[in-house]
Amino acid sequence: MSRSNIISQIKTLLEAVTDIGQVYDSIRWAIYEDKFVQDFFTTVNGQNQIRTWMIYRGGGGEDYGSRQNSLGTGLSIATQRGLSRYDFIIEGWASFEDNSSDSDFQTLVDSVLTKLKPEISLNSSALMRGPINYNIDHQFFGDYFVHHIILTFYATEEAGLSPV
Fold first, then answer.
1. How many whole angstroms separate alpha carbon 34 and alpha carbon 5?
2. Strand, helix or coil at 117?
3. Packing angle, helices 99-116 and 3-15, rounded to 10
4. In angstroms, how far is CA 71 from the centroid of its own chain?
5. Where do the domains of the chain lie, and which CATH numbers do they carry?
6. pTM for this predicted structure
7. Quick check: 14 and 20 in contact, CB under 8 A?
8. When you count CB atoms within 10 A of the terminal residue's CB, does the N or C end of the chain come out lower?
9. Using omega within 30 degrees of 0 as the cis cutoff, is the peptide bond preceding 131 cis?
């Protein structure tokens, strides 16, 4: 499973969260207000507000190890396996409207974490590795004050097998 396929799987998981808003599989940027509103706003409970998530790779690496594979005849062969590690970042922003918006955002964060936690295997080709770390703060997003979260975790995939 390639990095882009892993991100696609994560995007599908996030899109299944109620009232998640816009979910992108890359970093987005808008210099003009109309593009900003188009890309980062969504309607939640009848109110147009910022509700945006971006998924991207923040780093990675490779590891090599060996294992024994059975040939089904009582014999086994040593194989070299390569593991690719992808460090992923999910950033989320939500409008800071009033006192209840913090509670709403915290509930949304809990829903995202609940959705991601059981998905250890991404299509059986890659494994999400824990723990999922996150940091919540508040910042300006364009001209808007917003709730903000950064979630980080990594996934590994077997890069291939070859005889030693």
1. 30
2. coil
3. 130
4. 37
5. 3-163 (3.30.2000.30)
6. 0.81
7. yes
8. C
9. yes
